[in-house]
Amino acid sequence: MASPGQQPHPAAATPALARLAAQSQTDFELDFFAALLDRQPEFVEALKAHAKNLAMAKRHQEGLQMDWRITRLRPEDPLARYNLACSLALTRHFDDALTELRKAVELGYRDFTFMMKDRDLDPIRRDPRFRALIREYERNR
């Protein structure tokens, strides 16, 4: 114990704390959500956060696996289908990406302005099926 007037000496940081302090926020969250999902694999909100962080880290193949899990748990969720389409496009599964994008629209996804500028969809944007989907929407507006 420090005597009166003396400051206590901080304990040396443990290796685990030093590693945490050196991590970026995204890396911390990737570790956190991975551990959480090991315990609760069907926790959809954690899956969504983990998928978003994986995308930010450009770990697209792993993000695709998260998006598949989410759509299995929430097959009628248009945003889940949209995010799956993005992951499929980023991993060069173009036919599946276009199929999922159509499902997202059929389920109610309507942010076409964002869809037209979303960089995740760049790999399929020039595909005639992408343009046909947009034209079909514009006709039905």
Describe the protein.
- The chain is mostly helical.
- The protein has one domain (22-140): Tetratricopeptide repeat domain (Serine Threonine Protein Phosphatase 5, Tetratricopeptide repeat, Alpha Horseshoe).
- Helices cover 67% and strands 0% of the residues.
- Helix 2 (25-39) runs antiparallel to helix 3, helix 3 runs antiparallel to helix 4 (60-73) and helix 5 packs antiparallel against helix 6.
- It is elongated.
Task: Please specify the SSE layout and strand pairing.
Elements: H1 15-22, H2 25-39, H3 44-56, H4 60-73, H5 78-90, H6 94-106, H7 112-117, H8 128-140
Helix pairs in contact: 2-3, 3-4, 4-5, 5-6
- Gross geometry: elongated
Q: CATH superfamily, please? A: Tetratricopeptide repeat domain
The second-level CATH architecture is: Alpha Horseshoe
Count of spatially separate domains: 1
Helix content: 55-70%
Along the chain, the helix and strand elements come as HHHHHHHH
- Unreliable residue runs: none
Number of helices: 8
Largest sheet: none
- Overall residue-averaged pLDDT value: 89
Features:
141 residues; mainly alpha; Serine Threonine Protein Phosphatase 5, Tetratricopeptide repeat; 67% helix
